[in-house]
Amino acid sequence: MEPLRDSFGRTHTYVRVSVTDRCNFRCVYCMPEEGLDWMQRSDLLSYEEIARLVGVFASMGVTGVRLTGGEPLVRKDLECLVAELGQIPGIDDLAMTTNAHRLAACAQELADAGLTRINVSLDSLDPERFSAMTRGGRLDKVLAGLDAAIAAGLSPIKINCVVLEGENDEELYDLVEFFGARPGHFVLRFIEYMPFQARWHTSVPSAELRARLSAVYSLNLATEGIGQGPARDWVIKENGLRIGFISPLSNNFCSSCNRLRLMANGHLRTCLSDDGTPSLRDILRGGASDSELEQAIRDLVMGKRKSHEALIDGGTPFEGVMTRVGG
Ligand code: SAM
Ligand code: SF4
What we know:
The chain has ten helices and 13 strands. By secondary structure, the protein is of the alpha/beta class. It is globular.
């Protein structure tokens, strides 16, 4: 099998699959309050089409798939897609990133269908701030979703927290205490805010977050990573909580990027910053064979950018809108 390489020698083993651009939240750093011009239903890849494309990716050495969105749990019957993807030879890591608002009702069903891991986005433990940051989300429902996921055997759960200067950065210690109180069930990751088009918020660089935490706790570098992600992990000595810092701006991981992003309408984003790639959906619906799809994917990956150009204090913002891309 010929690995899926780009012109800079990077091998791709991980595909993030966005199943919808819609979401039941409107997080302040992700989406405008009024929402977006949503993709039409006929534009979305069907579950059958997603499974076929994932099969082609798997034949080129992709082993990990993460379902994302928008909010993946707003798309109907997601467990059917999970079951289909779980049967594809070579896919041994089938994960999902979710806001968990609807997770309590379906965590067990998703685990039974073959989901192996989840990441949950949670930026505040204060119900009012949570509702303000998500523009309407209920913290209690998300916490119930976390409990259901643990009961379904989906822990350790990675909690993704986007830290915004002056908005939720004072909650660092509360988050560490809350998730550290349930040993083994959570990994807490702090993500630098990435500017899409207009810069609406101020990122807190990972190094500064680490310094703020080090002033209160002892942080030891973790020896092994979990999953396929770019986080740099540490363990808090006082409570054993594993934490990670995802630093796309202050310390980007482009040189070792192993990921591709299949958008809900079939566009393959080879780089998070590149909005200009064509749609695999059109090639697939045009009657392409698997080997023609494989060639189309290889050609796109060959054209992958070396790096994005967003910086912590400027540079070029990412193109498009995060909720369409899937994080
Ligand atoms: N709705 C799901 C969720 O929120 O987990 C999945 C999609 S969401 C786009 C995926 C991830 O992207 C979330 O962890 C979210 O916090 C993160 N995200 C969204 N906009 C971001 C931004 N501007 N900068 C950094 N991370 C962002
Ligand atoms: Fe929705 Fe996730 Fe974006 Fe929040 S971060 S608006 S939950 S897609």
